[in-house]
Amino acid sequence: MTGETDLAVLLRGMRPVLDPVVYGFSTLQRDATLPPALRPLCLFEEEEGTTLIAPQSDLVAAGLAHRPGWARITLTVHSSLEAVGLTAAIAAALTDAGISANVVAAYYHDHVFVPWDRRHDALTALEALGQN
């Protein structure tokens, strides 16, 4: 099943949803074993190590150093991996609001991680983007 590629359709239909979970970003050496109870939302292999995004409480329980305090906003529109401009539009809207954004493009949806204390501002900015 392929996703939407038309930017106007993507923006009108993105319907951002705020996840109530507080997330953290952490990193492990590439050859490290994940703690057994840790079920990260996302893993990404980089040259320097394995980046993982997981609920902050899970990272604390596993004793992993991490960058705490991130909220996840999911764009519920099914975007194509080939869609052009969605990430740029999101980044521009959040830049205009002075909000840092870390975007993860998954197979079905895009997920935007923003500072926890700015989550409601970010949601408002993304909702406004979808209405313009």
Automatic annotation (TrEMBL):
Domain DUF2241: start-end pairs: 2-66
Span of domain CASTOR ACT: 73-127
Superkingdom classification of source: Bacteria
Protein name: ACT domain-containing protein
Organism: Thermohalobaculum xanthum
Record lineage: Bacteria, Pseudomonadati, Pseudomonadota, Alphaproteobacteria, Rhodobacterales
